[in-house]
Design the sequence.
């Protein structure tokens, strides 16, 4: 499996986890929803997250 396939698989799993967290925070912890939205904004925005994410992938694999 090449790096692109690994990245794609990780991105799909990340989106699944994000969706689970989204429903969890929305349903049970409205006050944390704002904090999570800020984290989500950082995760899904910006080249810096992509760079950090790549560094993590390089360390893991």
Sequence:
């Amino acid at each position: 499996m090449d790096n692109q396939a690994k990245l794609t698989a990780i991105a799909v799993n990340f989106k699944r986890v994000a969706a689970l967290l989204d429903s969890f925070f929305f349903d049970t912890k409205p006050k944390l929803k704002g904090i999570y939205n800020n984290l989500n904004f950082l995760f899904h925005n910006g080249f810096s997250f992509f760079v950090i994410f790549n560094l993590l992938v390089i360390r893991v694999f």
In short: The chain is about 90% helix and 0% strand. The mean pLDDT is 70.
